[in-house]
Design brief:
8 helices; 0% strand
């Protein structure tokens, strides 16, 4: 009996893999909407009502892609390219999570994006990211806020600016 339950457990893991693969297939229709969602992201980025910490998070993801250093080497088949996708998906998810609902509704209306379809697309994307990863990543903006507050309280910023200005004058 124990052997049978072990086989069922293995089948469960296999079906989970199949489920993730089918989830990726569900992601394909989103590709056709990528240009309109890119315009939405730009509209939110340039709006001063979007929290700066969320903008910085998105900039960090773009920087990660541009730097070319990967968590998982691109030489590893299939998995190598997934880290880039996961970083982008998580960054966009966190970015949108921090945008005030009224601002998001305003931009969706301006760009004529159906809110229900948008929510369905976001739900599809979130299903691709494992829950524990999403939970951990969701703490980043809070941690960035604490780090920013500590930096401001330390008084290092004005000292660094003074040092930079002094170096510019002597050069």
């Amino acid at each position: 009996m124990a052997g049978g339950s072990k086989d069922n457990h293995k089948k469960g893991r296999g079906s989970s893999t199949v489920g993730r693969a089918l989830g990726l297939m569900a992601f394909m229709p989103l590709a056709s909407r990528a240009p309109i969602y890119a315009r939405l992201m730009i509209a939110l980025l340039v709006d001063e009502r979007t929290p700066a910490a969320r903008k910085a998070l998105l900039a960090g993801a773009v920087g990660y892609l541009l730097v070319g250093r990967d968590l998982i080497s691109d030489n590893i088949p299939i998995v190598g390219g997934l880290d880039d996708i996961v970083i982008v998906v998580l960054a966009v998810d966190l970015f949108l999570d921090g945008v005030p609902d009224d601002l998001l509704d305003e931009k969706l209306a301006e760009l004529d994006i159906d809110r229900v379809a948008f929510n369905q697309d976001i739900a599809r994307i979130r299903r691709l990211t494992p829950g524990p990863v999403r939970k951990t990543i969701r703490r980043i903006p809070e941690l960035l806020g604490h780090a920013t507050a500590a930096f401001q309280q330390s008084g290092v910023g004005p000292r660094v600016r003074t040092w930079i200005n002094r170096e510019e004058r002597t050069a």
